[in-house]
Predict the 3D structure of the following.
Amino acid sequence: MRAPAAFPATSWALIQGCQEAGDQEERTRRLDLLFQNYWGPVYSFVRRSWTRDPEEALDLTQAFFLAFFEKDFVAMVSAERGRFRTFVRTVLRHFLTDKMRIERARKRRPQGALLSLDRIDPDAAGPAAPEADPEKSFDEDWKRATIHAALSSLRQEARDGGREAFVDLFVECYLESDEGARPTYRELASRTGMGYHQIKNGLHRARADFAAHLKREIAEQAATDEDFRAEARELFGIGP
């Protein structure tokens, strides 16, 4: 599955707002925003963990978000419980395990008489998991989603300041091209009609701004400074 679309910033302020919202309509709006943020990684985890086809995976993803809302999982989230990414993954894993257990029981104990043992399908537990580690893939999807969020906020800032063209060049050079295949400043200048130094300075600023937005996104998904450092290190290899 390709990286999920860019989403609005996720933050502990948003999560706490879901917990503290007194108006049900406002709480629902905030929860809906929260679910949009994590839709891509959750959907991909469901498909990789249970090898569901897209329609089944979509149904399970929707069921997870509904349970997240109805069972008020968000009220369990606090700084003491660690990073929200870990919390979501843990709750999702338990949710899918329960779903599979119920599904097995339904297959083996249909309405009416019990199935005889010689009629039990050995594959009733579901297909084997794919070779890729679903939890590692979940983290990779989360990483891409965080990058998309940072890029989205950077684009908005650049658009307001009339610098969006340099964001497009930054994406081309540093997010879509391998290091050896990146166009030179002179090639970009020739292609765009901008000056060499204009390209160089614009890309330098775009890189610095993107790094700042990325760190801000990581910080907004962490409860403490320690969590921020751990997320930066584990997902992006950013040292202290």
User: Anything to note?
Assistant: DSSP finds nine helices and no strands in the chain.
